Structures are given as structure tokens and as C-alpha cells.
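Sequence, C-alpha cells quoted for completeness.
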Amino acid sequence: MAQTQSTPETAGAVMVTAVPTAQSSEAIPAVRERLLHSMHEYESVHYIYILDAKRTLLGALSIRELFRPTEKRTMGECLSQGHIYVVKPGVDQEHVVYEALKHGIKAVPVVDHDHRFLGAVTGDRILHILFHEAHDDLMRFAWIHHRH
């Protein structure tokens, strides 16, 4: 059975959409300024996700990297050629936690089948999922069953 974005305990169900994004053509100083003025609008500010005009995810830049002095002028020029780890909305939330821990990332971007950016599973949600999954596993291991 295929899972959808609204299926409980999937990346699509636990992701947030209030994260900073920027177009690859945007000037770095303009993005810095916008971020400083709209920081309160975001649920997470670990990364700024760089998109093209069709909202295709091109990469991510940490906020620390964004504010590091650089000679590069646009967001696209700051992108490294490395792989960015993403998940689809139907991926189980436990897999999201595994990927975040495996790759040492604070948030995991969620994209659709065309690689369009949908949102991100943020660090606080990753920790929440990790705690609840570990708790459930411990209770099951101890043969303690409870009803929700």
C-alpha cells in the first residue's frame, strides 16, 4: 500500500513548511537581510533551502555558511556539488531519523517525485520522533503494553 503525505508517521505528516528558502539567482546580501527581518516566521532556521523557479530543490546552505564572508554573489554560486539527502513524503518517520543521524544533518528536506521542495523534517521533530520510537521499543521489549 502506498503511503501519502497525510499518512501518520511519515515524513509528509511530520514536516514543516515554514523554513527559509531562496532562489539560486538571489544575491547573498539580499537573502541575509530578508532572513534577519523574517526570522520569526520560520519554525526552523538551521538551513536555507535553495530552489529554482519551479521550486526544484538544488541544495541547502547552513545559516552559518550564509553569514560567512564570501566573494560569491548569488545563492547558486554557494552550492557545493555534493549530494543533498532528501526523502519523499511517504517515507516512514523512523527512516527520516535514521538518515538525519547517519549523515549528521539537523533537518531533512522533503521533496515530491519531481524533486520539488515541500518542506523539511526539523531537528526538534527528529528528536521527538526518536524519543517516542525508542520509548515504544523499550516498552515492547519490557513486555509493557499500554493503550493510547
In short: The chain is about 35% helix and 15% strand. Residues 11-141 form a domain with the CBS-domain fold (CATH 3.10.580.10). The first strand starts at residue 21 and ends at 23.
